[in-house]
Write a structure and sequence with these properties.
By secondary structure, the protein is α/β, with parallel strands linked by helices. The protein is built from 8 helices and 5 strands. It has a 5-stranded parallel sheet with strand order 2-3-1-4-5, with helices on both faces. The protein starts with 5 loop residues before the first strand and ends with a helix.
Length: 207
């Protein structure tokens, strides 16, 4: 882990955070992890990958996540447990993979509360990418051929789900700048400049 550098990226829907993450990984010539984490966690646990995806959606769509919190502690349940395939245990397996990656290699990780899972790691740079509503609308419209009203609903719902998922597993507010090392407004910088700013921060932080 001595020379590994891990960048975690949380992002508002439409801000381009995932695109920035991919561009950054290419510039650094390191692996990029998003939904691949579910496949790796499935391989590790022996639990079907579809259960991981289903569990994520269950937590995101549940009204309980705005009330109940189950802050990640790292505990893994064994296959003989009745809760082996519970949402909490499935998240913990993904977190186990995230920690193993941080110990093993430099990489870019999107979402999954990775900033919190790796909060005690000195080799991690956590980034939050955000943008004004109009910019997010413009970017989302490039991917979805739906009405402006439906697009607004999609953005609001996705960000609400991400905030709830983050709150449930970390106990923290998703948009709180204090959770991250670097917060970037992609509308002001553009994607390429966001990548440059992250690289500049890395150079200073891990010189």
């Amino acid at each position: 882990m001595e020379n590994n550098i891990v960048i975690t990226i949380a992002r508002q829907y439409g801000s381009g955070g995932k695109t920035i993450g991919k561009m950054l990984a290419e510039r650094m010539q390191v692996p990029f992890y998003d939904k691949e984490l579910m496949r790796l966690a499935s391989d590790e646990s022996g639990i079907n990958e579809t259960l991981f995806a289903g569990s994520d959606e269950k937590v995101k769509n549940s009204l309980l996540h705005s009330i109940v919190k189950n802050v990640y502690s790292g505990e893994l349940l064994t296959p003989d447990s009745d809760d082996f395939t519970s949402s909490d245990n499935l998240f913990n397996y993904q977190a186990k993979i995230i920690r193993e990656l941080a110990n093993r290699e430099s990489c870019v990780i999107i979402g999954r509360c990775a900033d919190y899972v790796l909060k005690e790691y000195d080799n991690v740079l956590s980034v939050f990418v955000h943008a004004p509503h109009d910019f997010c609308m413009e970017q989302a419209a490039k991917k979805h051929s739906i009405s402006e009203r439906e697009l607004e609903k999609l953005i609001a719902k996705t960000d609400r789900q991400r905030a709830g998922y983050y709150k449930y597993h970390t106990g923290r507010d998703w948009t709180d700048a204090r959770n991250y090392d670097l917060c970037l407004d992609s509308s002001k910088l553009g994607f390429e400049r966001c990548v440059e700013e992250i690289l500049a921060y890395i150079k200073v932080r891990f010189a």
